Amino acid sequence: MEATPFSIAVSSSRTVIRSFPSSFHTSSLVFLRNNRYKTCHLKVKSTGKFAVRASFSGDSVVTLLDYGAGNVRSVRNAIRYLGFDIKDVQTPEDILNAKRLIFPGVGAFAPAMDVLNNKGMAEALCTYIENDRPFLGICLGLQLLFESSDENGPVKGLGLIPGVVGRFDSSNGFSVPHIGWNALEISDDSEILDDICNRHVYFVHSYRAMPSDKNKEWISSTCSYGDRFIASVRRGNVHAVQFHPEKSGDVGLSVLRRFLLPKSTLTKKPTEGKASRLAKRVIACLDVRTNDQGDLVVTKGDQYDVREQSEENEVRNLGKPVELAGQYYKDGADEVSFLNITGFRDFPLGDLPMLQVLRYTSENVFVPLTVGGGIRDFTDANGRHYSSLEVASEYFRSGADKISIGSDAVYAAEEYLRTGVKTGKSSLEQISTVYGNQAVVISIDPRRVYLKSPDDVEFKVIRVTNPGPNGEEYAWYQCTVNGGREGRPIGAYELAKAVEELGAGEILLNCIDCDGQGKGFDLDLVKLISDSVSIPVIASSGAGCSDHFSEVFNKTNASAALAAGIFHRKEVAIQSVKGHLLKEGIEVRM
């Protein structure tokens, strides 16, 4: 997805002009990474014409309030993409002296308020906003403006907007967290939302503020998910949004541009969309590994358990991950997921190539990025211990929006089911406590085990749609660890229920039997898990054509569907999948 072409003309003291033809290739923007450009004239090789002219003064600096939780790199990249430099808040005075302030709140409510209060920034922030200075809060940056939150609370907020931030109600059948691309109902005087044009924006949150008579004058848009909640607020120069503009593609960039350059004009009006509700997500997955030269490459084997090359099964090199991720973004992928397939045995903080992939990808890919592989506690050769929280934090700082935990979550679930005690020490619990459960995806890798009788095992058993090789009518799904190599005494159903209780925000549901076969998702498995938990479920393994996506969405409660091989080999285009889903009456982001 490319940014909508636009040109900008502002005061004589500062001019920023950009031109993006429709054929512009996003990889050409890599040069922005190392430039703090005061005055520059740059020429870059591209598939079309591209020119940047920037003459910076203090007016072109954006002050960023980053309190150290979650992925703020994407906001930084989006700001720089739009031609601005960044000044980080170090002291309360930096807030008071800001000409424009962006607060990209990420994580949980209480830790964020603790940081603001302990550093004396809460009072400065209130003063700045009360004086009607240009402000944009994002996600938690909106919620903190309210009086309090029920998240691990009640916890007192900044108290600028009347209302309490409460958790979504999952009892009505809606999955919580609210994750994905949803539609807005925008008021007439929204200003920064003027270029959304009825298109989807990306949400990821478990808590929301509700409209009331006391806060109605603040509300600039709402969104429906079970109930109608506040999606954005505006009063004068003060704005805040519950969704993530930095992860909402070209639509989100238009919101940031409207805030940073309110007098800018689009050279081409965006195409009017048809967003009406939460869209089903189509996710592109890249299995990455280190080759003999130390570079990360994308691979895909014919069977799930071939996570490393062997004589029996060839793993194919399908390209460089940064380039592929950029292409998938332009093709319309709703999210991009990286799986470091050797991460279960490597020390991830020493995995500099993977961190670099995230950093470079996040510069030009403005949809959510998930990374998985080896996120657990480590002790290095020198005896230095690294917690899973430290490992995850480095991934977040490098550009990941969500992290995916596999084997470590299985061990944590087994211990929890054995003792009934939440220790708070597992990687799942640690990371979800600090960053919020919406930042933690649990990757489940089950194998179908056929049974003659439902009483043969202690785990959840289902009657299968297609009988086993010996006519078996029943099966259970045994979870595995270490890339599918080792079976564990826990079923997919039991694991899913346990990790939800431990704080997971989403489940990536693989299937060893279906992976790489191209015959469709395991609908029995997806239905079992998506009907059993109240968190979103991503169907994975087995997609071979567009029909398989509509089938899994029509027959199960999956929130998203993921594919790797068919996209890598260009057997099916992402836009073809989405076009098919639209024809089938399934809402998607276009």
Automatic annotation (TrEMBL):
UniProt key word Iron-sulfur: no
Question: One Pfam family from the UniProt entry?
Answer: His_biosynth
Q: Spell out the residue ranges making up region: PRFAR binding.
A: 406-407, 443-445, 515-516, 541-542, 564-565
Q: What does the sequence similarity comment in the record state about its family?
A: Belongs to the HisA/HisF family. In the C-terminal section; belongs to the HisA/HisF family.
Binding of L-glutamine, residues: 139
Sorted alphabetically, which keywords does the UniProt record give? Amino-acid biosynthesis, Chloroplast, Glutamine amidotransferase, Histidine biosynthesis, Hydrolase, Lyase, Multifunctional enzyme, Plastid
Q: What is its main location?
A: plastid
Q: Name one GO molecular function term.
A: glutaminase activity
Q: In which pathway does it act?
A: Amino-acid biosynthesis; L-histidine biosynthesis; L-histidine from 5-phospho-alpha-D-ribose 1-diphosphate: step 5/9
Give residue ranges for domain Glutamine amidotransferase.
64-259
Function of this protein? IGPS catalyzes the conversion of PRFAR and glutamine to IGP, AICAR and glutamate. The glutaminase domain produces the ammonia necessary for the cyclase domain to produce IGP and AICAR from PRFAR. The ammonia is channeled to the active site of the cyclase domain.
**Which compartments is it annotated to reside in?**
Plastid, Chloroplast
Q: Which InterPro entries match?
A: Aldolase_TIM (IPR013785), Class_I_gatase-like (IPR029062), GATASE (IPR017926), His_biosynth (IPR006062), HisF (IPR004651), IGPS_HisA/HisF (IPR050064), IGPS_HisHF (IPR014640), Imidazole-glycPsynth_HisH (IPR010139)
Give binding positions for substrate.
374, 510
List the catalytic activities from the record: L-glutamine + H2O = L-glutamate + NH4(+); 5-[(5-phospho-1-deoxy-D-ribulos-1-ylimino)methylamino]-1-(5-phospho-beta-D-ribosyl)imidazole-4-carboxamide + L-glutamine = D-erythro-1-(imidazol-4-yl)glycerol 3-phosphate + 5-amino-1-(5-phospho-beta-D-ribosyl)imidazole-4-carboxamide + L-glutamate + H(+)
Record-annotated active site: 139, 244, 246, 287, 445
Report the CDD domains cross-referenced here.
GATase1_IGP_Synthase, HisF
What name is this protein filed under?
Imidazole glycerol phosphate synthase hisHF
NCBIfam families linked to this entry: hisF (TIGR00735), IMP_synth_hisH (TIGR01855)
